[in-house]
# Entry
Amino acid sequence: MTPTVARRRETVIGDPTVDGQSVSAAWRERALARFPGGVNSPVRAYRAVDGEPLIIVRGEGPLVWDADGTEYVDYVGAFGPLICGHAHPAVVVAVEAAARDGGPFGATTPREVELAERIAAAMPVIERLRFVSSGTEATMSVLRLARAATGRDLVLKFEGGYHGHVDGLLVEAGSGLATLGLPASAGVTVAQAVETIVVPYNDLAAVERAFDDHRGRIAAVIVEPVAANVGVIPPAPGFLEGLRRVTRADGALLVFDEVITGFRIARGGAVERFGVEPDLVTLGKVIGGGLPIGAYGGRAELLDLVAPVGPVYQAGTLAGHPLAMAAGIATLDLLMPAAYRELERTAAALEAGLRAAAAEAGVGVAVNRVGSLLTVFFRARPPADATGAKASDTAAFARFHRAMRAAGILVPPSQFEAWFVSLAHTDTEIARTVAAAREALRACRG
# Structure
């Protein structure tokens, strides 16, 4: 199949030029006047791939269109929530019905209970939960809960793991393999950073050393069961089981951050896929069907420490928003076993096609995949941790990204992000993607 340049359709917002500019360029100029860097989240700036930010105006199924009418096959999927594709009819109908019902109300609604019941049925480890409005809120709240439950201050996280822009988690490792953290962002104080221990992902020995050094002081280990914010890196055999053993022996809590993996790699998330039960879980993305949402949950005795039952304060005016609840219910109702079999089939076909394209182009890349998450690493061997991922050839990835974009394939604008396959992607989009990748890989050499 011969790749084509990005397809164009009539723009939906006006004439394709404004004072000699494209529509997208005009919108970018206006955005720069109002937002830092012209964007509302850093990765959208496309600086890692030396590109201009996209201005997207519409999405349908596996496709999106920019303000100039250019069509793309989309593997960004809003960075994870759109597992059913853009504007799935069932989700649209559900959101429209919720909007007609009014709200939010500042009171409990039946839709909150219905979505919570679906989540608990899929993840029995979640006996109770609390809805919030973002993944950042979920991780911030779950660590407050863990500290209250254990009476301890320290938290252990993994290098490269992203758990939202919580001050205490925006840290990086100091010198050594199991050190207290250093601020990784301006505005994060040393006092907050030193309460977080940072060790390499997949390094159980480093975890054990940290517990030896801080015995009885670590409240929780928080981990992405599948690392997805340095690119997709699966857990090594025995790693998650080891975390469960070490935390249980010391009296610390194990927190699975499933904001990305929850309902993405299995209906029961990483708990189902790997058979390891954490004490607490954070969720987001898929459970809102594309609308802002987060949640944290776990055993009843832990969640009952949260106000109004217990002493841990956490609140949210828009938590349990009716539109997000409706979108989440509709999405989860589509995610039955047959859906996951189809996601696995489609993602496996994409993985195989990308590997073949790289071999044909003579480019050494590694493709890591877990379920419908995958990353093409521009390095010869799959990385096992953040250090390995960061050794990828980011300049080659940037050339690859630009060539794919020119061919009408939209992948995340960073070497260190996951691609998201949806139920809307068909064999047609996979074939189109692989054909474009074959040419893009040839173009990115040198």
